[in-house]
Write a structure and sequence with these properties.
Elements: E1 3-11, E2 15-22, E3 27-34, H1 39-53, E4 59-68, H2 71-78, E5 82-83, H3 86-97, E6 103-107, E7 112-118, E8 121-128, H4 136-146, H5 153-157, H6 171-183, H7 188-206, E9 217-220, H8 227-237, E10 241-243, H9 250-262, E11 277-283, E12 292-298, E13 301-306
Length: about 325
């Protein structure tokens, strides 16, 4: 008899993550890649990667879950039993691996969030989705301008004797400030350290404003891999900031744990990765709401739809 395994997929605006865990929450397979504006394609690539790593002889996937900005679309694609928002998924994932955590800092590609935890339960949170300043996308654009790979930012920042002051409350102002610093001959490593400091400061002054940051603190999301930003958070907060090596996968891990806890089991097939999926937007004119309804098709057949605010817009077949 095969052992049970659980699949979790986190589909964000910048990256798509997937994990498979066993009943002890140990990782059996993992994948992280760029979404590139196509969550359907990215999900298929993640599934193919996970399938290559997965031991289908010893394990079978009996439950799956999705989270992230395209969670509903991908949930329909794979027939997920659990579809939850990223706040819930990140909180569950982090508290599963770090039961003592009190504050979760998360900076992703285009948004940031803070989650406050008490007794293993998320009791408060805040998100910043209005401006990309201080996110992974912001750092990537500045890295491109400096001719440096964003993955090298942290290592370079740690070499700086001091951090150049960068006004990062707005991406436009930050870029103007960065250009000025280059023109006056400021060392590149000090500018990069300044950008890392600006990211931490921008986060604390905006996303975390009004929130009490209590240790232990766990920092996650793609930006947590930047040692320069981690250092700046520790300096600003005056406390250690823990970075889990699986921090970039925490949303996918959390939703896999929730899929396991749902106890709603049915066999998952990787065949979905080779099926054709299409989405279509339909505007309903049957009432004054004019709802924009998203329809998802698998192999030409409607499998799901959402967006209607009343029964007039319910789409049962096309």
């Amino acid at each position: 008899m095969k052992k049970k395994a659980y699949l979790g997929i986190d589909i964000g605006s910048i990256s798509t993550k997937g994990v498979i865990i066993d009943e002890k929450n140990d990782f059996l397979a993992e994948c992280y890649l760029w979404t590139e504006g196509n969550p359907t394609k990215a999900t298929k690539e993640v599934l193919h990667s996970l399938q290559e790593q997965f031991d289908g002889q010893e394990y079978e996937i009996v439950s799956s879950g999705t989270t992230g900005s395209a969670r509903k679309l991908v949930g329909s694609m794979i027939g997920a039993q659990v579809v939850k928002n990223e706040i819930t998924a990140h909180a569950v994932g982090t508290t599963t691996l770090h039961p003592e955590v009190r504050t979760i800092l998360e900076i992703g590609g285009q948004d940031s969030k803070i989650i406050c935890v008490e007794n293993g339960v998320a009791v408060d949170y805040a998100m910043n989705t209005l401006c990309a300043a201080g996110t992974g996308a912001f750092l990537s654009s500045q890295a491109h301008r400096l001719g440096v790979e964003v993955e090298e930012f942290g290592e370079i920042a740690l070499k700086a004797e001091k951090a150049a002051p960068i006004a990062a409350r707005c991406t436009v102002f930050a870029e103007s400030d960065l250009v000025h610093k280059l023109q006056v001959g400021c060392p590149k490593e000090e500018i990069i350290a300044g950008l890392c400091k600006a990211v931490a400061g921008n986060y604390l002054n905006n996303v975390a404003k009004g929130k009490k940051i209590i240790p232990p603190v766990v920092f996650q999301g793609g930006v947590s891999k930047n040692a320069g930003v981690v250092k700046m958070f520790e300096e600003e907060l005056g406390m250690p900031v823990m970075v889990d090596e699986k921090g970039h996968l925490m949303g996918a891990f959390g939703i896999a744990v929730l899929a396991k806890e749902s106890q709603d089991e049915r066999e998952f097939s990787f065949d979905v990765a080779d099926m054709e999926f299409k989405t279509r937007e339909v505007t309903c004119g049957k009432c004054a709401n004019h709802c924009e309804i998203i329809c998802v098709y698998r192999e030409g057949k409607l499998i799901d739809s959402w967006g209607n605010r009343c029964d007039n817009g319910a789409i049962r077949n096309q």
